[in-house]
Amino acid sequence: MGKEKNQKTVYLFGDKKADGDASMKNLLGGKGANLAEMSLIGVPVPPGFTITTEVCTLYNDKGRDYAVSLIKEDVEKAVAEVERMTGTKFGDSNNPCLLSVRSGARASMPGMMDTVLNLGLTDAAVAGIAKKSNNERFAWDSYRRFVQMYGDVVLGMKPESKEDIDPFEEIIEAIKDEKQVSNDTELTVDDLKDMVKRFKAAVKAQTGHDFPEDPWEQLWGAVMAVFDSWMNDRAILYRKLNDIPAEWGTAVNVQAMVFGNMGDNSATGVAFTRDAGTGENIFNGEYLINAQGEDVVAGIRTPQQITKEGSRRWAILADVTEEERAAKYPSLEEAMPKIYTELNATQNALEQHYKDMQDLEFTVQDGKLWMLQTRSGKRTGAAMVKIAMDMLKEGMISEKEALLRVEPNKLDELLHPVFDKDALAEGKVITKGLPASPGAATGQMVFFADECEKYENSILVRIETSPEDLEGMNIANGILTARGGMTSHAAVVARGMGKCCVSGAGSLVIDYKTRTLKVDGVSLKEGDWISLNGTTGEILEGKIGTIDPELSGDFGELMTLADKHSVMLVRTNADTPHDSKVARDFGAQGIGLCRTEHMFFEEDKIKAMREMILAEDEAGRREALDKLLPLQRKDFEGIFQAMHDLPVTVRLLDPPLHEFVPHEEENQKQMAEEMGITVADIQAKVESLHEFNPMLGHRGCRLGNTYPEITEMQSRAIIEAALNLKAQGITAKPEIMIPLVGTKKELKMQEEIVRATVEKVFEERNERIDYLVGTMIEIPRAALTADEIAETAEFFSFGTNDLTQMTFGYSRDDAGKFLPTYLDKGILEYDPFQVIDQTGVGSLMKIAVEKGRKTRPNIKIGICGEHGGEPSSVEFCNTLGFGYVSCSPFRVPIARLAAAHANIKQGAWDADNAKETLKESAKNVADAVSSEYANVEKEAKKAAKKARKEAEKELKNLRNEAKNIFKKFEEEIKNLKKK
Ligand code: PEP
Ligand code: MG
Question: How far is the CA of 702 from the centre of ligand 2 (A)?
C-alpha cells in the first residue's frame, strides 16, 4: 500500500476543532480518535496531531525512510499548527514548544507500548522553559526526565533483564549518595544540571553518539520508536492474549506538553466516571499534586483520591485517621475545589456524550485543567453488569445496548466461587491492601512473574508490577503488590483480566533475594499459601475454602433480558441430578446431553458393567445388564425429576469398552478378586479390547449394533424412569440420542431396537409418554448424508468435539502435542476444539442443517459439543437457525447472553441486509426509469426531427405553391394590363 494521492496521514486537533472524530478509531487509534472528539465537543485538550495507524503498517512493511518521506511534509505543517495554537516555537530558546509522543492503538493496550515526554528540550530550550515557568528547577528536572526517557525508549538503553541496572538510575543513585540525600526532590538545580551532563555522557558511552540536540531529530526518533514498540515482546504477548491482530498497527499522538509538575498549583491524575471494580455510580480516581502522569500509575508515591467521599473510604481501608487524611492526603475536591468542579462537570459531560463509563486522564497546569485522554474504562465482570443495567435504568442506553455492553465471557468472573464465609472467619488476616480487583484467590507465593508456573495455584507477590510481568499475572490465581494505588499497573491489568488483585499493601516487606515476605511479625516464604480478598483488600495466611457466588439482582435481570432478546434456548450437558439442578438454577432450559457412561463409574455400577464386558455371550451380558437396569433407571429418575417439564436428551452408551476396565496391574488384581477370576483372565480381556485408534474404533452406535441388549437395557431404563415419574405427577420429556452415526442403516437399526423396547414397556405398563429418537451429527459422513439420516432422526445434535476431530483429522486426545505450536506459528488462528471452525466444520454443519430440513422441515436442531458455551460459536449456531445450544452448567449464563448477542447482531445484520436489498432494488428501479426515459427522449427527439422535416417540406411545398400562384397572378395581371 503506497500513499494514495490525497491520502491523509496526519490529523490535527485542538482549539475546539479537529480533523478526525471518535468514529475513526481504526485510523487514529482509540486515543487519537477520542482526543479529536473531545476537542470537537469543546473539552480542553492540549493541541496536537495524530499520525495514522496506516503509517505504522507501512513503516513495518517498507521501513523507516519510506515512512518518514511519506509524512515529513505533513508533520512539519502540523508542528507549525501546534506552534501557532500554543504560541510557542519548536526548539526555541525563549518560548520553546515541548511535545509528548504517545502510542495509541485501536484497542487499548495499557502500558504495553512506548511514550516520550518533554520532547523538544535541548540545552537551548531548557533555558526558555526556565524563563517561561520562572522555575529553573522545574526546567532542569523536566530535562533530566526527558534525557532518561529518550535514552531508555528511543536509544535502547533500557535494561533487558531483571538483573541489569538502568544506567540512568545508577547515576541518580550516585548523585544522591554524593549529596547525601534520599529523595529526588532534595536535589538542587546544580545537581540536576550535573545529572543531565552525566546522562548525556552515559548516552555517548553506550551508543557512541551524542544525545540529539536537534528537536526534529528527537521527534523523528520518538515517532519511530513508538512504531517500533508495536512489535515489542510485551505488546505482541498482550495482542495474543486479547486477540488483537498485528496488522492493526498503532497510531502516534504528538501533543503539546502540559505540566502537572509545575508547582503546587499543578497536578495530574486518572479518574473513572463510575467504579471500575464494583460498577457503583460514583466518580472516583487518584491524583498527585506537582507530579507527572507516570507518577500516578507507577506506584512510587501514594496517590490521593479525587472526591472527598472516595478519600474517606480510602482512609478507612488504609487505617488513616480523618485528621491525618485531611492534612496529609486531601482529596482534589478539598485541595483544588474549582478544578474539581470543572473536572466533575467534564466527566459528567463525557459520560453523557459517550454513553459509557469513561476512564480519564487529566493534568492541571498552573491552575488550568487539561484533559489528556478519555476512553471506555476497563471493568470487572461485576462492574460490567451493574453499569449496563444502571445505564439502562437511567434511560441512557436501550435494552439491546445494555446486553451488548456485557461480554459473555466476562460473566465467568461472576460465576466463580468467592471465599466461604465460615472459612474466612477462621482465616488470619495478616494485613490489608487496596481492593484493586475483586474476587477471591488462594495459592502458593511466587516472587517473580516468570516463575508463576512453579505451582498449580500461585499468587504473584511483587513490590510493584510492570508490563513485563504480564504473562505471569495471567498464569497466577491472584496478584499482590506492596506499592501502587487503584490505578497502578497491577490493578488496571488485573481488572482487565478479571483476576483478583490486592495492591498497595504498604506494610509488606518483600525481599526478592531471600524470597520472603514479612509483615507485623509474620514471616512467609516462597511456596507458602496465602489468600487474597480482592473485594476487601484483605491478605490472609493459608489456604481458604471457597463457595459458589450469589446470582441475583442485576445479574438476574440481565439474564431475563437476555432471554427476552434471544431465540435460541440454552440447555446443559449434565449427567447427575446435582449438575442438572445447578444448571437449572443458572437458567438451563433442558439437558442437551446426558452422557450415560459417566454414571457407570460409581462403585456398584462399574462392577456390573465389568461383568457385562467380561461375559462370554449374550446370555451373560443380559444377566449383567439386568443388574445395571435398576441402577440406571434410578439415575434417570433423579435427572428427570430435577429437569421436570423440560426436555432431557439422553445419549446411549458411547465410549469404547476398554475405558471401563483397569489397565494398571494393581487395579486388575483388585478386579480379579472382586469377580472371583484370575488376573490373567482380566488381562486377556483387556488385551482383546485393545484398539489402535479407540476413538475411531468400537464405540458409539457400533456398540449398540453389535450388542443390541445394551441399547435395550438403556431404552428400558429411560422409559421406565419417565413412567415412574408420571405416576408421581412429574412430567419427564426424554429424547433418546444415538451416538456416532455415519450411515442411515446404523441409525435405523438402533431406532428399531429403541422403539420396539419402548413399545414393550408401554404395553407392560399400559401407559405411554411422548418421547423422541434422534442422533448426534458428529461424523462428517452423517453431515453429508443428513437428508437420509433425517428420515429416521427426529432431532440432530451436533457433536462438534468429534466432528472437529474427524474433519481436521486431529485426535482429541493427542492434539495437545502440536496445537500450541500451530497456534504460535499462526497455522491455526484459534483452537478448533474451543471455537468452531466455521470454514470447514461449519460448512459441514450448514450442509447437514439444509439437508436435514429438506427431509424433515421441523427437525429439532441443537449442539452439545464444548463449543455450545463459546460465544462466537453460539453466534454461528444462531445464524444456522438452531433451536438450542447445550453447554456445561457454569457456562449456561454465558451462553444465554451470547444467544441474545447473536440474535441482536443477526437482527442488525438482517436489517442491514434488507436495507442493502432495498437500496439495490431502488437503484434498479431508478436505472430502469432513467433508461426508459432516455429511450423516450430519443424517440421523441427522432419524432420531432421527423415532424420538423415534414413541416419544412410542407412549408417548402406551400412556398412553391404560393410562388406559383403569385407567378400566375402576375402573369394574369400582365395579361390584363396588355388587354
Ligand atoms: C461431541 O463429540 O461433540 C460430543 C458432545 O460427544 P463426546 O464429547 O462425548 O464425544
Ligand atoms: Mg462425541
Answer: 13
